[in-house]
Amino acid sequence: MKTPHPRLLLAIVPLLFITGSLPAQQDAKAIEATMGRMRDALRNTMVQLQTAQAENAASQAKLVEAEARITELNARITSLIKQADTDKANAARVAKEQDARIGTQATELAALTSNLEKWKTGYKQAATVANDTEARRVKAAAKVIVLERRVAEQQVKNQELHKLGLEILTRYEKFGLGTAIVRREPFTGIARVKFETLIQDYSDKLADGRIKPEDAQKSASSTSSPPASATAPAAPSEKPAAKSSAQKGES
To answer: Secretion signal: which residues (predicted)?
Structure first.
């Protein structure tokens, strides 16, 4: 059951007060006029009541709509808060991954820098070794030139000594028995055989001690030990041997 509106009560109370105070001797016309006024007042009150009820219903609808809007906004705020928390967590995760990636890249960069420094050091060492090698090569080439000159000189001397030795051997080879008799030199068969053996030995030694072109090239290309100095002294030793054999033959 609905409770009467306060405005309706305020309108009815004066009417009741007026009705009770009417004198009994008023005529029916006055009563009818009064009742008309009461009906009009009641009608107006009912219109006001309906208007108030409509306004109340509209207010209730707006309140419900506002509450629904508030609920929707609260849900949206809650969703936004959750999304913000999720985004914050994702941002923290991405930042952590980025920091880890930056750390890895920094480590790789440090390793690359270290390797680059090592490569620079190795390159400098290789350049130093290459320069030293080139210097040694130039020095060795200069030594080869000097050795080639020495070999050429020794070869000329060797040719001269070999020629001289052959001349001496040819001379004593042609030295026969008649020559020995003319020169009054004893020249028996045994002595001749011995002398021919000595001539053959000295011929072999001269052939072995002679510098050959291929030996000269090998000697010039070798820088570890000067072969010309080892070969050259062999030639001077032949001349004393030839002289010794000549002295023996003349004796």
So the answer is: 1-26
